[in-house]
TrEMBL record, chains A, B:
Keywords: Amino-acid biosynthesis, Branched-chain amino acid biosynthesis, Cytoplasm, Leucine biosynthesis, Magnesium, Manganese, Metal-binding, NAD, Oxidoreductase
Important for catalysis, annotated site positions: 141, 191
The keyword Metal-binding is assigned to this record: yes
Complex and partners: Homodimer.
Catalytic activity from the UniProt record: (2R,3S)-3-isopropylmalate + NAD(+) = 4-methyl-2-oxopentanoate + CO2 + NADH
Stored SUPFAM superfamilies: Isocitrate/Isopropylmalate dehydrogenase-like
Organism, scientific name: Microbacterium sediminicola
Name this polypeptide is given: 3-isopropylmalate dehydrogenase
Amino acid sequence: MSARTVRLALIPGDGIGPEVVAEAEKVLDAATATSDVHFEKTTFSLGAGRFLDTGDTLTDDDLVAIAAHDAILLGAVGGVPGDPRLKDANIERGLLLKLRFSLDHYVNLRPSKLYPGAAGPLANPGEIDFVVVREGTEGPYVGNGGAIRKGTPHEIANETSVNTAFGVERVVRYAFALAERRRKKLTLVHKTNVLVHAGAIWQRIVNEVAAEHPEVAVDYLHVDAATIFLVTNPSRFDVIVTDNLFGDILTDLAGAVTGGIGLAASGNINPDGAFPSMFEPVHGSAPDIAGQQKADPTAAILSVALLLDHLGLQDEAGRVTRAVEDDIASRGDQVRPTSQIGDAIVERLQA
Amino acid sequence: MSARTVRLALIPGDGIGPEVVAEAEKVLDAATATSDVHFEKTTFSLGAGRFLDTGDTLTDDDLVAIAAHDAILLGAVGGVPGDPRLKDANIERGLLLKLRFSLDHYVNLRPSKLYPGAAGPLANPGEIDFVVVREGTEGPYVGNGGAIRKGTPHEIANETSVNTAFGVERVVRYAFALAERRRKKLTLVHKTNVLVHAGAIWQRIVNEVAAEHPEVAVDYLHVDAATIFLVTNPSRFDVIVTDNLFGDILTDLAGAVTGGIGLAASGNINPDGAFPSMFEPVHGSAPDIAGQQKADPTAAILSVALLLDHLGLQDEAGRVTRAVEDDIASRGDQVRPTSQIGDAIVERLQA
Ligand SMILES: CC(C)[C@H](C(=O)O)[C@@H](O)C(=O)O
Ligand SMILES: CC(C)[C@H](C(=O)O)[C@@H](O)C(=O)O
């Protein structure tokens, strides 16, 4: 029996990205050391650093080369805020969002779990274990906007959210299928009372798909009310489905209440398999602490678990998750350098 | 010396609205009993109840009549969620937002303060005392949107955020003036890295107005990061200025971390005085507990303090705020009926 080969694109990126990806790689290697799978890795130099060196953000050649892989692991991209040399570079839109849009990552999967031992800001958090299914390819993120009379007292700047039945239905179906495998509860979050057009298409499609899933209890919350429940009663959530912008906001808040975005993992998934899916910590590049071994690699390592699960390697994914859980449970107040956290998790995997 | 007359429009509304407005009125009367000001009150029957009775949401006659007042006190509007008779009524857009837009309430002022004795969800909240200055007349709330192929698998629903230099500048100027009177710190919240057009006009105008206020320390946060800080370090905020939608989200979250939206007051302000300003609790009509004396009238009462302050009655406003603070400090775990809370605050005012 011949080993399966997985072509993995690595994008360490900027700031703490390379540090956390190094630990994630260690863990990936350890978790699959005895598996019948071989990872063929290619590292892509992308991000603010590359832009400063070459002026390129993401070339067509980069995109073609990355798309030829089976999966992508990304650390974090983005330069020092306010760096004048990056004034006209929009690394977020030109690189991160360009990857998500070009590779049709229509499911942005963001689990939130309060692990025993993780210290969050809430006095009485209760059990927290939910997943945000954030739409990844449309909504307010499409970039359809512009300005007239720019820079004058008469400027008008517009930004249009585009929501298609095609785009909403596929992500809503994914969310319902996920809810079927979990606690069978789905919450649509939007702002239907104000954004009546965008809201109506989401509500209609959720209602339609709900009819095919009589076992799933469905409810609805306005985004403002959802933020209240995330701090007063996060246990009420199982699967949240929402648009690109509301998902962005809710998942940062969710990361905070479950112990910080140092622990929050995510997958940018193309469920059809037409393009490689991309796994990345929710946190950014944190240039202020880069190169100092101060970053927590846990979010990147949990992103590896999501990657393994996506590749059908459930055993390996489960082992990584359990090793991380055990590590978090034993942390207490100790502060360890980035690589020691990775090593400790590798040791647990090898035990 | 003749008493000043203030024409006050009361809109008790639906659900718990009438109950909390009744207490707010008691407090208003008590706080101004010995003042040289006389309130001439007119009550307007508006909301889901009125819609069900008459089919009207807000007529032109209503609007003209309300606009002839000096100020407005609103309880809460909105019917029972899912009531089929309200399917085609949008009380939020047709009444609440119509008032805010027609009366040019371009400053939506929402203070957040953690009062001693108020129990919030955070384990270590620190001192919380900031004000969100939310734009009230444009952004994603304009209602400029629509759908084609509605109800079909090919539907496309758009929603456009409209941001004008005129609209952004006037609210930003208000926020800077407020920061000058407070701790001289202003945070712009937006999502400039993704919503590049809407984001750029906000950032440009904040930069321009900042140059006129060298004493004010200015920073910027993406909306997702801002939600993190609201639960991990809310003390960092003094004045937040933001658009209509981000302001909606941040102020519900801010209400939650400072002890619940039962305490959160707001003013919809037309600083030019061309139209009457409107004061209302941030909470909704909560039809599930309506008529049971279970609602906390504190948010409505603190909205009276904002109203008095807006009318130039700073002494009276300060007395209401202090009476509320003393009441909150003495609450402990006791649960009192709505009217008892109002009575207790009135007693403190009379003491
Ligand atoms: C960096 C930014 C473009 C991105 C987003 O808004 O999606 C980030 O906040 C995230 O959540 O992954
Ligand atoms: C009821 C709704 C239209 C309103 C808003 O979104 O502004 C409410 O949430 C608020 O914050 O006052």
